[in-house]
Write a structure and sequence with these properties.
The structure is a homodimer of 216-residue chains. Helix content of chain A is 36%, strand content 28%. The first copy, chain A, has 9 helices and 11 strands. The complex binds adenosine-5'-triphosphate (ATP) (2 copies). The site of one adenosine-5'-triphosphate (ATP) has 21 residues of chain A, from helix 1 and strand 2.
């Protein structure tokens, strides 16, 4: 497994490093602030204080052995950009950058960033979807219009068996699991009866799952 | 459906409003900066310029009719806190707040915030999990240790049928769908043969799914 380097130990960068280390990935943490580097030196596999816009300093740290390198600098637009350019100059295969705004994202893409993340923007979207679809409890996209979704069982289905509920016939949705009282029933039989408080795990069109979730 | 109010039209707040409106929810957008209120007035159902730390101004805007109210103020610690306190004073049932740091989150909880979101921190965690588990493509938690996960089919299973793969016997995982070439095969039969490039949708223990994903 190749190692990951993270430039910028702010809120995003530090949380990224911590999660990677917790999941067994070895991480090089970089920041120009020696105080931050010192503070995280016991939590991150390896840390070094340097100015990431300096190509020579990056080469000396052996940055080209890391893949991907994540640039977790947001507010400082110039440092974010110059760092992305320097990393591409030393031939790092994959550079992932955080951006503060959509314009920042577009410029990073133009100078070679392989992927750009907008943490604030993405968090707003995720909360919006959750609040807009109250019965909707989770989703994994499978292909263009099909997904696995978890929804609260609508009241009108409580007391019916899966067969009687006609969820497959009416919505084209397959129930692949039921979550009840802290336990999951995988691949339930068609004579399983839906109870109040059940969550249904469905495979089918996302739009149809949302419809089922918002049914009374 | 109750309406949602969002205080603070920064990156997070604006993106939240946009997503809610796109999903058919009516939204009241609030900011003390009249320029921002003007800029978003054509995108958000209703907007008003006021200082959200002023309880009287909130009452005049009829804030208690909205549920939840989201406080999307991050950098300005005092405004975030005073707004949360004012909203609880006018008896808004659910107040969701954004926080900039863990300390900020803890203080918001103490003054009554029902839920606190740390966008930077959560984005770092999400990216960390994704980079640490390259074969892991998505997850919905079902209960304490069981989840629905999507993983890249390991090379050692390519060419075997689901029955021959013994994924259920060896890992306790049920394959509930296969994603192949932009199409999903829901509830595949046990004689379905796994092909190169397939993604498997599994139900079972998350730790076992991760093990399967990182198998060669
Ligand atoms: N040229 C540079 N070289 C190395 N580190 C840098 C450089 N410029 C900025 N940093 C570091 O990157 C970190 C994050 O930068 P910045 O404050 O610009 O982003 P941020 O978006 O506010 O971060 P976050 O929101 O994740 O806390 C800081 O710790 C800063 O010291
Ligand atoms: N007392 C207040 N009343 C109403 N709006 C306020 C108040 N204080 C701050 N705001 C608004 O909240 C918005 C976001 O605030 P702030 O800049 O503190 O957070 P932020 O974390 O930087 O936002 P983001 O990261 O989402 O862009 C700003 O548009 C600001 O005008």
């Amino acid at each position: 497994r190749s190692e990951v380097a993270v430039v910028g130990l702010g809120r995003f960068g530090a949380s990224l490093c911590r999660t990677l280390v917790e999941n067994g990935v070895s991480v090089l943490g970089i920041d120009r602030d020696p105080g931050l580097v010192q503070r995280y030196s016991h939590e991150i596999t390896q840390t070094v204080a340097l100015d990431s816009t300096d190509e020579e300093a990056l080469r000396e740290a052996g940055i080209e052995a890391y893949n991907p390198v994540v640039v977790a600098i947001g507010d400082n637009f110039e440092a974010s950009l110059m760092t992305c350019v320097a990393l591409k100059a030393v031939k790092v295969p994959t550079v992932v950058c955080k951006a503060a705004t959509a314009v920042h994202r577009d410029v990073l893409r133009k100078v070679g960033a392989d992927r750009v993340i907008l943490p604030e923007h993405e968090a707003g979207q995720r909360l919006g979807l959750e609040l807009a679809q109250p019965g909707f409890l989770g989703e994994i996209e499978l292909c263009s219009d099909t997904a696995v979704t978890k929804v609260r069982a609508p009241a009108s289905l409580v007391g019916l068996t899966l067969e009687e509920s006609r969820v497959n016939e009416e919505y084209g949705l397959r129930v692949v699991a039921i979550v009840r009282g802290g336990r999951a029933i995988a691949l339930p039989s068609k004579i399983e009866r839906i109870e109040s408080g059940d969550q249904l795990v469905l495979i089918g069109a996302t739009a149809r799952a949302t419809e089922l979730a918002s049914r009374g």
